[in-house]
Request: fold
Amino acid sequence: MKRTMKLALSLLAPLAFGLLAGCERPPIETVQTGYRGTGMEQIYNPRTLLKQASLNQAPAPAEAAGADGPKAGEVYKNVQVLGDLSVAQFSRHMASITQWVSPGAGCAYCHNIENFADDGKYTKVVARRMIQMTQRVNQDWKTHVAETGVTCYTCHRGNNIPTNVWFAPKDRNNANSAMGDLAGQNLASKSVGLSSLPFDPFTPYLKDSAPIRVNSTEAMTGVGNYANRASTKQAEHTYSLMIHMSESLGVNCSYCHNTRNFQSWEESRPQRVTAWYGIRMARDLNNDYMEPLTSTFPGHRLGPKGDVAKVNCTTCHQGAYKPLYGAAMAKDYPELQTLAKP
Reply:
């Protein structure tokens, strides 16, 4: 009998471990974000928050520089952005970019150190455009970033290439012939939380402008003429985008939605409006800034289909509900608040 029990326990132990592997040990913290009974709560793991906090620390700003003296555009050659800054302000900004993007390689990552005016390095051409993109976000997308704003560090975090960008995925429809046509999903993909949902939630919504709402507010108007034309497949794509957003911000659905009525804007939190603008901001940056740079990048910096790296929610948020937990870095760099003058 004892032998049988030991055998049963030895068989059940791996099963129990497998069942609990996806669970999180206590304590788990719950924060109510809406009216009681509406299910609007955020579930947090304090150990995860502690780890995220260490990864979302903003660096101290460089000491401010005076505006007196000649302008950078008058002293240096080929200054196409930030030329209206004083030489001291310009030098401060360049030193800051070095720390934000290339602390290892230094100035040489973008510049020919024997001729700083030379545009021979693609990294310099890209950096110039990225400064303009940052200014665009801070000037024209306050509906998403408010007065907190962004700097190069928001995405780069001391890396030459932001650790969270996306490319159009290679064709994986026939990756598993036993399953036939995978229809762009049915593979556990990191981009959608290791679910089997469509593994490219970015191209339809953060590059193209596919409609996100998949249900109608109207009933069917007659046989063969339905008000709701959205398919289950379209719904799955929407869910894959929502999973991406949830994981990017480290929150669950009720951060934006009221779980008793996901569709209703009236019952949603204000964060849903901010997210709505964020989707359109990412789409704007990808199409107006990233895509036009495709030919500037060398082949090894392009994706499997030859496209340029693009931004999504994780690029800035990196697991935090606000990038860098709301650290307002941009206020210390007023030259990034408005589109550059030559």
User: Anything to note?
Assistant: Strands lie at 29-32, 41-44. The domain at 25-55+164-217+227-317 is CATH 1.10.468.10 (Photosynthetic Reaction Center, subunit C; domain 2). The longest helix spans residues 271-290. Residues 155 and 316 are 5 Å apart (CA to CA).
